[in-house]
């Protein structure tokens, strides 16, 4: 959510529509979390009472994110202010299913159906929302990403030409649900046929377990854990990668995949959530079954041995992102949606 919001702000949305961002979450301690939410709720209440709110756009994910944002949306509706329920994350269907058919699940359905617009990241998520909350008014607006210019990309790609060894890149939470350990289990088969290649992993989470698994598999020398990577170092890391891998078990519309595509880097993913709406198998990237380390190894080996395929997939992905996910494209879609909801 933070990455999407940052991209929208970078794309100039706040310059074209006056807005104020309310942070409802704190990272540490129950008291800090409660205090942050209460502060946001009171700030919104004061602005609503003063008549200074034309629309409330809530970025919503599963679990506590939903409960916080649903209360803010309900508050706005009480003042007759239009609301947008912007659904993020790949775990929302599982989240609602685990609630069971009682009051909590009915509140989720009500929150979706009472919003003036529910915005999904893909057609597949739109289908799910319409099945779960038939009265919801749903639109699709894909995640935005900054696309480097051809000149910027050429400069960044110089790092790829100078890299000591070609590498696959993984960026994201290090956890079983993201396929991090499936990727590691696929890696020995890749190294057996492509020993010069490396695997670079950027992100936080179960880093120690990942390193231990790499050691147990005998591949530790070719696996590098980078920790959390952001900003210019992240852009350089993506641009210099030979391919990007994200074998998740569920997703919304992963920004990391879009960033790789924007840099002309071929991607290997699983067909979950909104991924098939941005990556067609064999066109913008390669898709492999969830949890299938052997199929994942085969896909990675295809890329190690076929530089022309890597280039073709990378260029097709960049064209796709330019057409559908570039900042100006997505910002214009949001402006049109806002105009359609404001009285």
Secondary structure elements and their pairing?
Elements: H1 2-10, H2 13-16, H3 30-49, E1 56-60, H4 64-78, E2 83-87, H5 92-99, H6 103-114, E3 117-120, H7 123-132, E4 138-140, H8 150-162, E5 167-171, H9 180-193, E6 198-202, H10 207-217, E7 223-227, H11 231-240, E8 243-246, H12 255-262, E9 267-269, H13 275-278, E10 285-287, H14 293-305, H15 307-324, H16 327-341
Parallel strand pairs: 1-2, 2-3, 3-4, 5-6, 5-8, 6-7, 8-9, 9-10
Helix pairs in contact: 3-4, 8-11, 9-10, 9-14, 12-15
Please explain how this structure is put together:
The protein is α/β, with parallel strands linked by helices and 343 residues long. It folds into 2 domains: 2-144 and 327-341, Rossmann fold (3-Layer(aba) Sandwich), CATH 3.40.50; 150-324, Glycogen Phosphorylase B (Rossmann fold, 3-Layer(aba) Sandwich), CATH 3.40.50.2000. Helices cover 54% and strands 12% of the residues. The protein contains 16 helices and 10 strands. The chain has helices spanning 2-10, 13-16, 30-49, 64-78, 92-99, 103-114, 123-132, 150-162, 180-193, 207-217, 231-240, 255-262, 275-278, 293-305, 307-324, 327-341; strands at 56-60, 83-87, 117-120, 138-140, 167-171, 198-202, 223-227, 243-246, 267-269, 285-287. Strands 7-6-5-8-9-10 form a 6-stranded parallel sheet, sandwiched between helices. Strands 1-2-3-4 form a 4-stranded parallel sheet, covered by helices on one side. β8, α12 and β9 form a beta-alpha-beta unit. α3 (30-49) runs parallel beside α4 (64-78) and α9 crosses α14. It starts with a helix and ends with a helix.
């Amino acid at each position: 959510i933070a990455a999407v919001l940052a991209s929208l702000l970078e794309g100039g949305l706040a310059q074209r529509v006056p807005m104020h961002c309310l942070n409802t979450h704190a990272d540490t301690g129950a008291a800090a979390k409660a205090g942050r939410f209460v502060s946001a709720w009171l700030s919104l209440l004061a602005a609503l009472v003063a008549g200074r709110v034309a629309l409330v756009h809530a970025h919503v994910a599963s679990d506590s994110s939903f409960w916080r944002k649903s209360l803010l949306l309900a508050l706005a509706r009480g003042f007759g202010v239009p609301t947008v329920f912007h659904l993020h994350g790949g775990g929302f269907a599982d989240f609602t299913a685990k609630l069971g058919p009682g009051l909590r699940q009915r509140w989720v359905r009500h929150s979706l159906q009472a919003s003036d617009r529910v915005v999904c990241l893909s057609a597949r998520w739109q289908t799910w929302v319409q099945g779960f909350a038939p009265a919801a008014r749903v639109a699709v607006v894909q995640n935005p990403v900054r696309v480097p210019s051809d000149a910027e990309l050429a400069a960044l790609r110089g790092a790829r030409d100078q890299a000591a060894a070609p590498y696959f890149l993984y960026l994201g939470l290090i956890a079983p649900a993201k396929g991090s350990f499936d990727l590691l289990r696929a890696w020995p088969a890749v190294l057996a046929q492509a020993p010069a290649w490396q695997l670079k992993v950027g992100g936080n989470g179960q880093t120690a377990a990942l390193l231990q698994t790499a050691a147990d598999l005998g591949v530790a020398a070719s696996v590098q854990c980078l920790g959390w990577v952001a900003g210019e170092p992240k852009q350089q890391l993506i641009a210099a990668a030979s391919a990007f891998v994200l074998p998740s078990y569920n997703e919304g519309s992963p920004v990391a995949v879009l960033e790789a595509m924007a840099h002309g880097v071929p991607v290997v993913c699983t067909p979950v959530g909104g991924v098939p709406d941005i990556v067609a198998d064999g066109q913008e990237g390669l898709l492999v079954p969830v949890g299938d380390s052997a199929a994942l190894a085969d896909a990675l080996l295809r890329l190690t041995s076929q530089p022309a395929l890597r280039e073709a997939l990378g260029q097709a992905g960049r064209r796709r992102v330019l057409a559908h996910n570039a900042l100006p494209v997505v910002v214009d879609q949001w402006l049109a949606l806002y105009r359609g909801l404001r009285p």
